[in-house]
Design a protein that fits this description.
Layout lengths: L10 E6 L6 E6 L10 E2 L5 E4 L3 E4 L3 E3 L4
Antiparallel strand pairs: 1-2, 2-4, 3-4, 5-6
Length: about 70
């Protein structure tokens, strides 16, 4: 969910640097609420860069794209 309240979807996959363990991005399954301005790839998943994540609780809150 974005900090503005747009539901983006559920985490389907993550990408990370295997050497450092640093999270690179989240891949979210599409949701009818829209993309929130994030890049949608061919299979309908949204790519959310890890540096956009603000809170990690029951929901992941992410800042909208720049």
């Amino acid at each position: 969910m974005t900090t503005e309240g747009t539901q983006l979807g559920t985490v389907e996959n993550i990408t990370m640097n295997p050497k450092t363990g640093d999270l690179h991005a989240l891949r979210l399954g599409s949701h009818d609420g829209g993309s929130g301005g994030y890049h949608e790839i061919d299979d309908g998943q949204l790519i959310v860069p890890a540096d956009r994540i603000e809170a990690k609780e029951d929901y992941l809150l992410v800042r909208p794209p720049k």
